[in-house]
Amino acid sequence: MAISLENLEQRITKLELFVYEIIGKKFDEIDKRLEYIDKRLSNLYEKTESDKTEINKNIGLTKTELYEKIESVKTELYEKIEATKTELYKEIETVKADLYEKIESVKTELYEKIEATKTELYEKIETTKTELYKEIETVKTEIYEKMENLRVNLIKWMVGLFIAFATLIITAIWAILSFALK
């Protein structure tokens, strides 16, 4: 029973469509994974931005509170000086000096806390960024390896198919020639 060339072409066409469908599904899976990674990166970026905004807001509030406290203390000092100018002049000067020292120490302490928080945030951002880059590289490597394996398997399959068809054609020609020689 001989298989016609049209039947063989139809089978090859069906096999090609099947292979293209499998490859298409694999690429869809890869696209979904890349979209997931992109969403995770976007979420991390948004969280970092919101944390940064919150820190800036807190710094602004603390600064305003300090200025308000300084202004209120300054006003109190001027009122006391005017009320008891001659009697308490030396005492007011020492209190004033103490207040400036306290303000400077609080200011220095706040600057140190802000710098420590800023440094800590930079370190966290850098470690998170490094971890994400490593994870992206790992996923990318896995995808490339899977694509390479798929490509190698597809080539092996196509070579096997070609050899099978070549064997089939040789067998058919041999059968025709042996029948014709009889």
Number of strands: 0
Q: What is the overall pLDDT average?
A: 87
β-sheet strand percentage: under 5%
Characterize the largest beta sheet: strand count, sense, and whether it forms a barrel: none
**Shape, per Cα inertia axes:** rod-shaped
- Rg over CA atoms, rounded to whole Å, is 40 Å
The number of helices is 2
Task: Measure the end-to-end span.
Answer: 18 Å
Helix content: over 70%
Q: Topology as H/E string?
A: HH
Class from secondary-structure proportions: mainly alpha
- Low-pLDDT residue intervals, each spanning 5 or more residues: none
Question: Could you characterize the architecture of this molecule?
Answer:
Residues 67-142 form a coiled coil. The chain crosses the membrane at residues 154-177. Keywords: Coiled coil, Membrane, Transmembrane, Transmembrane helix. This protein has 182 residues and is mainly α. The mean pLDDT is 87. The longest helix is centred in the last third of the chain and has 93 residues, at 89-181. The protein is rod-shaped. The protein is 95% helix and 0% strand. The chain is built from two helices and no strands. The chain has a domain at 17-143.
